[in-house]
Every structure is written in C-alpha cells, then in structure tokens.
Amino acid sequence: MIRINEILDKTAVYLTEAEQAIITKAYVFSAAAHAGQVRLSGEPYLSHPLEAAGILADMRLDAASVAAGLLHDTVEDTKATVDEIEELFGDEVADIVDGVTKISLIPFESKEEAQAENIRKMILAMANDIRVVLVKLADRLHNMRTLEFQKPVKRALIAQETMDIYAPLANRLGLHRIKTELEDLSFKYLKPDVYSQIKAGVDRHHTLDESYIERVIGQIRQMVGENNIRARIIGRRKHLWSVFNKMRVQGLTIDQVHDLVAFRVLVETIRECYAVLGLVHSIWKPVPGRFKDYISMPKANMYQSLHTTVVGPDGERIEIQIRTVEMNRLAEEGVAAHWKYKEREKGKFNPKDVERFTWLRQIMDWQRELKDSREFVANLRFDLFQDEVYVFTPKGEVKELPEGATAVDLAFVIHTAVGEHCAGAKVNGRLVPLETPLKNGDTVEIITDKNRRPNRDWLKFVKTAKARTRIKHFIRTEERVRSIALGREMLEKQGRKDGVNIQKAIKDGAMLGVARELSLPGVEDVLSAVGYSRITPKKVISRLVPKKEGEEADVHLKMEAPASPAEGLTHTKGKTGEGVRIQGVDNVLVRLAQCCNPVPGDPIVGYISRGRGVVVHTHDCPNVPNLESERLIQVNWEGEKERPYPAGLAILAKNQKGVLGKISHVLVEEGVNIDSGTIHSNIDGTSQLLFRVEVRDSGHLYRTIDKISRLDQVLAVKRQAVTDELGSDPDDDNRHD
C-alpha cells in the first residue's frame, strides 16, 4: 500500500507547500471518514483512495485533483457530504468529488439503469471539468488492479464495462499507459485462458528476440548518427490485448506474429521525423499500405507520430514509430500533459482545447436528444470504441469519422439539415451507394434533395452516434404523426358505432378531460396511444359517454383486451403473461424475445409490437438500442409457479475423455434439463459445446455457469441466446413491426 509521504514526495517536484498542505488535509479527512472500513482484499479501505491519488500524482495533476482522489469515495461510502467537502476544501475539489460520486438518492428500476445514469453524469461533469474523468480513471485503474478479490460474475461485469467505456475513454484522452493497462487487465478477466496462452508466448518470444532487438536498435542508431541526427531509440514489447486483436483479425497463432516488438525513434524536430523516415525506408523495404502520417493529420486525442512497417533484418516485419520528444510526452500522458490548471478557471476548456476534443462536443450535442440513459451509454460505447478515418470535403476541409463510417455519417457531421436531406454521394468523383464505407484520404461530396428524408434502413450502416440519434429522432417524430392520424381514425370509427362525435369531444374539451383521467399530457397523446394500441378506442369512448349511476370511472391507464383481433392485442391459449407484470396494465399478450431469452431475475424491458403484444427483452439485449424508445415500457417479473425457461450455454473445454460426462453431472446436480446440444472440435485441442437448457431463473443459470467454470477441463463458460447455433426455431423477434 502506498503511503501519503510517497505521494507528497511525488507532488513536491511540481506543487507549492500550500498546495501540498491541501493534499495532507484531504488525507486526514479521508482517513477519519473511512476509519474501520475494510476492502475485500482485507486491506484498510484507505488504501484505495491513496492508490488512486498516487496514480494522479504520477500524472503530475494539480492539488485539487490529487485531493479529490483521496476524497472521491467519502460522499458515496461515508457520512461525509459534498457541502462539507466544499466548506473544507473549496468548490473546485467539491465539484470534482461530486462529479465522480454515484447517484444514490434517485430510485432506479434496475442496476443497469442506475449504472447508465452514473456514467452519463460523469460524462456531463467531464464536459465542464476534465479532471472528473481523470480521477475516475485513476479510481477504476486501481479497482482493476485488485479485481481478483471480487466474485467471478462481478469480475466479468466490471471488466466488460472497463473494456467498453473506460479504456476507450482513456484512449480518447490520449492516456496511453492507462489505456493499455486497463485493456490488458480487462482481457485477463474476460478471457483468462487466452490471456495466459498469449502472455506465455510473448514472454517466450521476448527472451529469444533480445539479440534481434539490440541488432535493429544498433542499425538505426548508426544510421541516424551518420546523418548527424540526435535520436533516442527504444524497443518496446506490444501489450497483450493488441497482440490478441492482431491474431484474431489476421487469423494468426502466437508463433506467426512476428512484430511483437515495436521500435520508437525520438528526435527533436518534425523535420528530423521525416528525415529519419526517409533513412529507414532507404535501408529496409516498406510494407505497402502500412504507413500512417499522424503528424500532418493528428488523431482526435492529440496523438502525433509517423508509423511505418518495414521488412527488417532476416526478412522479419518490424513496426517503427517516429516522433518528437514532445509528441511522445503527449502520446504517453495525453490530456494530462497539456492541462495546466493554473492557466484555467476550474479546469474548463479553452477554444483550442475544444478543437482538440471535438468528439466530446459531439457527445454533448447528441446526448441532449436522449432521455434514456441506457440509450446514451449504448451510443457512448458505439462512439468511443472505434478508430478514426480522415476524409476531405470538396472545399478541402478535413473531417474525422469513425472507421467504417459512410457518407450519411459525414452528412450529419457537416450539418443536421444536410444529413436529413442526404440523397446520394460522390467519393473521389464517382457516385457510390450511401452505405459505402469511407477510407482515409477520400474526397466526399454530399448530394442533397429537399424532398429526401431519413429512413430506417440508414440505421443498419451508420457508425456515428449523432447520425443514429438524429435518424431515430426523425423516425419517432414521423411515426408519432402517423399514430395520431391512425388513432383519430380508429376513434371516429368506434364513435360512429357508439353514437359519439369525436370531433365535438375534442373541440369542447371533453377529450382533454379523458387525457387527464388517463394521466396523459394532452389530446394528441390520447390519439397517439390509441394509434400505438396502448389503449383501445372503447376505453376512450367509455369515458366520453355519461356513466350510469353507481358506475365508477377507472382512472388508471390499462391495456384492455379489445373486442376483436383487429382492434389490438389478444391472448392465446390461456397464456398468463410469461410471469411478467406490466405496470398498470392487465390482460395483454406477453412474449419472451428469443433473441436474448430472458429468464426470471434478469433485468428486463418491454417493447410494444404491432399486433403481437409486448415482447420482453433483457436490458443488455443487442437489439434493444435499435428499437423505438417510445414503444419501450417498464416491466417486472412477478411471482408464479416455478416453470422452465429456455437458456443457452456456450462452453469452451479441453478435448479430453470424460469432459462431457463431468459437465452433464454438474447439470444433473443443479437440476438443469438439457433440451438439445451440439459439439464442435477445434484444431487447437479444444471443443466448443453449445447447449439449450431449461432453468428456473437467472440465479439458477448463473450458479450452474459458476460450477461448470470450476471444472479443470473447462476453459470458459458464457450464457448465449438459444437462437445462436443452438437449434431453436427461427423467430422474428428482431423485426418488431
């Protein structure tokens, strides 16, 4: 455990005595607040804020950041308040601590919703003060370093969130060291067997290649020396996650990956960067398509460097990065390297910084369109976890887009109006389909038509969150207009049967009274609800017709079964709603989506389909982000007799005798029925077992997964949708008409 004196030794190099005193004061406060608390590792809880503060000190951040690192859990886990911290340490430290603190006072429907809202809160706070996310990254890094003390299921959840959100966020901020460590630690817990194999292979190759590394460094050093260029040459081992990605993309084994070591040449000036590049290419043949110039076109996180892959000594491919010393400092430390807090007011961005972090401004733009925090986080993952391509407009302006982006993405980047009226595109002077992925250096001209509008098919290929958000917003608006028209038509038809004049009811305010009874904002919302089949025309008409004496008004919005199938949703074969309760709704058909197979205990969300009832998905189902948010409703599991629910298990095991028997024995012990299964043997001595099983609830499923994972011959176990190669009947749950 790091001690406060070690932190003060680190900060003494760049902070004043008065600033050091703030850190000491924060330490004393944190020690008192966390007194008696213990981590899962058995260490005093104070060890965690100390380690987080140590990471921030290594980044040479200011006193407010380091103090916030020491205090970041006090509001969340002790009786301390933000007001108390503001009084003792000032509003600057208090704002950072508040930005990092999870929201605990607001009730949420599920843990997933709460987690999504906390991430959203952090990102919004980061837009005002970048130090919020730097403290959070330090907090997450130490938590990942001690993740082995968590339960297996929680380890996997935390590691996945780190890989999806925090590692890409560190990358966007240019924090290379933190990004690579977060990726490797997440990799270790998400794919432990693969991680161990690659680590062993890399260690073996690194030992064998030491002489080769020295040889390459020597040749480069001699070459630059002969040309009077002062340079520092480094040979560094690539981190394990990047090696795994290369193996996966190119279909290689560890023995076939030759460039496990990258060489870095650090010089003084940009002119010398290009000079060294020319010298390298003069002695070693460059590999076509493997040169990247990030000096003239920096990445979004400020990264600048020349990258080239050449055929080096003995015909081996080697990667060489060439940059200045200052570029290397920015590459390693990112936003922390240029963030001088004394020159800014409370860590806010100045105009130059805004240009450097256009991706953050774009996130702020599209998040305003989203009310659902889970949709915000889905889009955030989508936006962060991508490499960039750079394209040109016909006027020569450079636009940065995620890899695989299309002309539609570019149109929305240029302006929302251009995106909404995009009719076609020319790439390098040639007409191309709108779904064509753009490449580095393409010149793209957007063709617009004032009569053209976005359509749902665009959602299948756009890559930017802004484009997806704007397209969904347009579709929702259009569908609301259609639902209102349809609802009006359905009400007028039913009104003619029952002798009720709907137009008159709207004009004289009677329909507004119905809206209030149904807890809806206005008349159009009533019409829309009818059009979407959320309520039936008869329910509305019954509130417009004078009630008989003694008859009570039902003031709750209920989804009643209509008189005929044409009017809405019906039940089938006495189904009881699949054990799912919908708030304030009775007597409606409920189906479990076969794309994710929710079981009792899973966090779930309902989707009102057209004519097929409410389809229930898990919160993390990959299809949920593509659904219309207006049709999503809150649903919960309700108690009922135990019954089997289908679920899928994907097991990677060693191809040895008796493995299937041991797995079957665990399933029998846990009372899990095997409905069907397939086994596929791999060339690497492993087998892939896919089972369709029946379980009582999510607890039953995850207990079984945990027991199977403990078998010596089993390398990995995960839950899988039963439609994924498990032989279930095809289902159209992904097409919610």
TrEMBL record:
<dbReference type="Pfam" id="PF02824">
    <property type="entry name" value="TGS"/>
</dbReference>
<dbReference type="Pfam" id="PF13291">
    <property type="entry name" value="ACT_4"/>
</dbReference>
<dbReference type="GO" id="GO:0008728">
    <property type="term" value="F:GTP diphosphokinase activity"/>
</dbReference>
<dbReference type="GO" id="GO:0015949">
    <property type="term" value="P:nucleobase-containing small molecule interconversion"/>
</dbReference>
<dbReference type="Pfam" id="PF13328">
    <property type="entry name" value="HD_4"/>
</dbReference>
<dbReference type="GO" id="GO:0042594">
    <property type="term" value="P:response to starvation"/>
</dbReference>
<dbReference type="InterPro" id="IPR004095">
    <property type="entry name" value="TGS"/>
</dbReference>
<dbReference type="InterPro" id="IPR033655">
    <property type="entry name" value="TGS_RelA/SpoT"/>
</dbReference>
<dbReference type="InterPro" id="IPR012675">
    <property type="entry name" value="Beta-grasp_dom_sf"/>
</dbReference>
<dbReference type="InterPro" id="IPR002912">
    <property type="entry name" value="ACT_dom"/>
</dbReference>
<dbReference type="InterPro" id="IPR006674">
    <property type="entry name" value="HD_domain"/>
</dbReference>
<comment type="similarity">
    <text>Belongs to the relA/spoT family.</text>
</comment>
<dbReference type="GO" id="GO:0005886">
    <property type="term" value="C:plasma membrane"/>
</dbReference>
<feature type="domain" description="TGS">
    <location>
        <begin position="387"/>
        <end position="448"/>
    </location>
</feature>
<comment type="function">
    <text>In eubacteria ppGpp (guanosine 3'-diphosphate 5'-diphosphate) is a mediator of the stringent response that coordinates a variety of cellular activities in response to changes in nutritional abundance.</text>
</comment>
<dbReference type="InterPro" id="IPR004811">
    <property type="entry name" value="RelA/Spo_fam"/>
</dbReference>
<dbReference type="InterPro" id="IPR012676">
    <property type="entry name" value="TGS-like"/>
</dbReference>
<dbReference type="InterPro" id="IPR045600">
    <property type="entry name" value="RelA/SpoT_AH_RIS"/>
</dbReference>
<dbReference type="Pfam" id="PF19296">
    <property type="entry name" value="RelA_AH_RIS"/>
</dbReference>
<protein>
    <submittedName>
        <fullName>(P)ppGpp synthetase, RelA/SpoT family</fullName>
    </submittedName>
</protein>
<dbReference type="InterPro" id="IPR045865">
    <property type="entry name" value="ACT-like_dom_sf"/>
</dbReference>
<feature type="domain" description="ACT">
    <location>
        <begin position="648"/>
        <end position="722"/>
    </location>
</feature>
<dbReference type="InterPro" id="IPR007685">
    <property type="entry name" value="RelA_SpoT"/>
</dbReference>
<dbReference type="Pfam" id="PF04607">
    <property type="entry name" value="RelA_SpoT"/>
</dbReference>
<dbReference type="GO" id="GO:0008893">
    <property type="term" value="F:guanosine-3',5'-bis(diphosphate) 3'-diphosphatase activity"/>
</dbReference>
<feature type="domain" description="HD">
    <location>
        <begin position="45"/>
        <end position="144"/>
    </location>
</feature>
<dbReference type="InterPro" id="IPR003607">
    <property type="entry name" value="HD/PDEase_dom"/>
</dbReference>
<dbReference type="InterPro" id="IPR043519">
    <property type="entry name" value="NT_sf"/>
</dbReference>
<dbReference type="GO" id="GO:0015969">
    <property type="term" value="P:guanosine tetraphosphate metabolic process"/>
</dbReference>
